[in-house]
What does this fold into?
Amino acid sequence: MVLQGDGSNSRKYIYAGDVADAFDTILHKGVPGQIYNVDSDDEVSNLELCSKLLKIFKLPYEQKENVEAWVERGQDRPFNDKRYAVDGRKLRELGWRPKTTFEKGLELTVDWYRRYGETWWGDISPALTPFPVIEGHKLVTDQHEELYAFLQRLKAEMEARDVTTRRTESTRSSRGKRWVRRGVSSLLLWHHPK
It folds into this structure.
């Protein structure tokens, strides 16, 4: 996994199905002209996220050296915020609360990518570089081969550990299931866009 900077930057993550429910609440209960922030209580550092992903992949994650074996440190992006957070009290006053924990949302996201990722998105490895370069309408990077080699190593390690994908049925509302079918809720959204 490529980690920009030292990994101490934190983000408040929220599952996309919960964001869809928040939008629905705003549309049905919100006051026109008001601003509603969609927030979460699940604040996680980027380094913690790496550990949680390794756990889901059934790779060693308990010790710092285990995590460091799978993390490739990259240059931090310029002006990278230390923390993203918003105040969502107004939306919560309308009765909305996130229902999916960070851990469950991450499991569902990884499960979706295991089942559909390659066929849904195609090869996205060129877009996973810390500082992608666009020339015309094409993404150009000199790190593509390194990233591809890392992904192949990760896949081989997971296969060697006989990691199997399992279907996780969501208990989301029908509205949330539509988002899953579109692949949108497979993503964990950040509260503040980059």
Notes: Residues 2-190 form one domain. The first helix runs from residue 16 to 29. The mean pLDDT is 75.
